[in-house]
Amino acid sequence: MKYILPFVAFVLLIQSCKPAIKSADLYGTWKYLKVENPNETPPSSIPQDELQVQAPYIKFTKSDSLIIVWGNKLLTHGKFHMDGNNISYTESLPGGSTRTFPFYISKIDGKNLVFETLGEQGTRVTAVKE
Known about the structure:
This protein is α+β, with helices and mostly antiparallel strands. Helices cover 18% and strands 48% of the residues. The protein has 3 helices and 9 strands, in the order ααββαβββββββ. It has helices spanning 4-16, 23-26, 48-54; strands at 28-37, 44-45, 57-60, 65-70, 73-83, 86-92, 98-108, 112-117, 124-129. It has an 8-stranded antiparallel beta barrel with strand order 1-3-4-5-6-7-8-9.
């Protein structure tokens, strides 16, 4: 038991040393490869043939703007900022109103990105940089 507490502290220290993701790490266009709904019962995903037809992507710009396109139509747009592994996205809505919600980045390696919306209805997206 006396060794467990130092081990847990060590693991938490290592995790806290992981460098924060910067906005610049995201700049560019990321094509969706997989869209999953892991919290559904049973878990589900969008079929690959539908993803090919709809060609969805997310684009992060140097002005910290974010757009999501689905089926060649603008699905959403707004501003984002990074906080560690979290993207705080403020969506621009009709009439000048906004709403803010988080995305969590579980993986980014320069070419691949996995991000998730949080909550019960959470969606996990795997994307590749174009």
